[in-house]
Design goal:
Elements (H helix, E strand, L loop, with lengths): L1 H13 L1 E13 L5 E4 L4 E6 L6 E2 L4 E5 L2 H27 L17 H65 L5 H40 L1 H37 E3 L4 E4 L8 E2 L4 E7 L4 E6 L12 E6 L4 H4 L2 E8 L16 E7 L3 E4 L2 E4 L5 E12 H9 L8
Helix pairs in contact: 1-7, 2-3, 2-5, 3-4
Length: 406
């Protein structure tokens, strides 16, 4: 008996037992519940999911009405394509290379496309040639008018010489009384009229020469001006294409906003919207509970928080699975809140300090299978704060308060 008592005493002194703090908590994701909000004020066109359905990040959840944006985008893309063709044609006209990465609506490596562009460039060059030829024709016409005016002036000058000779003869006959003074005066008037006409024609000839000189300058600079015009038109086409692209990009971004996608993988929750319903910008459409359940949120009572520090090992016993049959999840205390929170759905009856436990495993093993955890599962966290000899625990059981005898 003494030997048995000695062995028991030795075990009580040497043996150790974990000292733990027991608190309640729930399984959650460190990312928290993801709220999906409406990016626009629109009518819901389609709803593709339902509550409880698992979705992956990037899956389409809802589609907002976007018929008007799609229609405008088609028109904007058509305009953008026309401006790209116009720009490419001007580049070819100006003997510039076309980069394959410079155009979005067509490929310059496509022989059919390149043929169309070359035809347009040839047409532009033909128009420039016509302008140049027209300029030369106008110069020829101006020179012709100068020559015609000079010939007319020369003819009038000869006519004036004859008229002066006849007038002089009439004046001599009038002096001899062979003809009347009136006839001599008429001939003198003809001379005066011819002199006035010649003066006017000389002025017109001078003007014709000035116009011819101006047209000559214009024609001589026509080729240079044509090249400048081509560069200016190319620059204008580049600016118009940029404007069309900005409009198209704006519509594409707006259409993209009408396609509401999941930002995380998880289960759909709190979906209360339906097709045809009007939603406002910033309005919550649904929630996605992430499937990456990697923490347990704890509600630590005020009386226990002083004994806890981050890094302490934790055993998590799930309410849904018997501890004696399935054991506990392993983890470590990763965070303790610095201030006490008022009662809420996690701790309805008392204020608490929030805590977090990082899980080492995210599943429960049942019959050799790994059963994933679910968000919201209730747990009891056994936080190991140290070890005590078994004898101290036994002594605690038999320790009774002393009562003084009177």
């Amino acid at each position: 008996m003494l030997v048995g008592s000695g062995i028991a005493l030795f075990i009580g002194i040497v043996g150790k037992m974990d000292e733990t703090v027991q608190v309640r908590g729930v399984i959650e994701s460190s990312e928290g519940t993801e709220k999906i909000i409406s990016p626009l004020t629109k009518v819901i066109k389609e709803v593709y999911v339902k509550n409880g359905q698992f979705v992956k990040a990037g899956d389409v959840l809802l589609l907002l009405e976007n018929s008007e944006e799609v229609s405008q985008a088609k028109k904007a893309k058509s305009v953008f394509g026309q401006k790209e063709l116009e720009l490419a044609s001007y580049k070819l006209r100006n003997n510039k290379n076309l980069g394959a990465e410079d155009f979005e609506t067509f490929s310059v490596d496509d022989p059919d496309v390149l043929s169309v562009l070359q035809e347009r460039a040839n047409f532009l060059e033909m128009q420039d040639d016509i302008k140049s030829k027209n300029s030369m024709t106008e110069l020829e016409q101006a020179n012709f008018l100068v020559r015609q005016a000079a010939r007319s002036l020369e003819s009038k000058k000869k006519e004036l010489i004859t008229a002066k000779d006849i007038s002089q003869r009439y004046q001599n006959l009038a002096d001899l009384k062979a003809v009347s003074e009136l006839q001599a005066l008429e001939q003198s008037n003809k001379v005066d009229n011819l002199e006035a006409t010649i003066e006017s024609m000389a002025i017109e000839l001078s003007k014709a020469k000035s116009r011819a000189q101006m047209q000559s300058l214009i024609s001589s600079s026509a080729d240079g001006r044509t090249e400048l015009d081509s560069e200016r038109l190319e620059t204008s086409a580049l600016e118009q294409r940029a404007s069309a692209f900005n409009r198209l990009s704006e519509l594409r971004n707006r259409i993209k906003l009408t396609v509401v996608k999941a930002t995380v993988s998880g289960k759909v929750f709190n979906l209360g919207k339906a097709s045809g319903q009007l939603v406002s910008t910033g309005e919550e459409l649904l929630q996605v509970i992430p499937d990456d359940l990697d923490i347990a949120k704890l509600t630590i009572p005020d009386g226990n928080v002083g004994m806890l520090v981050p890094g302490m090992p934790v055993d998590l016993r799930l309410d849904a699975y018997s501890f004696s049959d399935f054991g506990a999840l392993k983890g470590r205390l990763s965070d303790i809140g610095s201030s006490m929170l008022p009662p809420d759905k996690l701790s309805p009856r008392a204020s608490y300090f929030p805590g977090k436990v990082s899980l080492e495993e995210r599943f429960v093993k049942i019959a050799g299978k790994q059963i994933p955890l679910r968000s919201g599962m209730a747990v009891t966290a056994m936080i190991k704060i140290g070890e005590k000899p078994l004898i101290s625990m036994i002594a605690k059981i038999f320790d009774k308060p002393k009562v003084e005898q009177f």
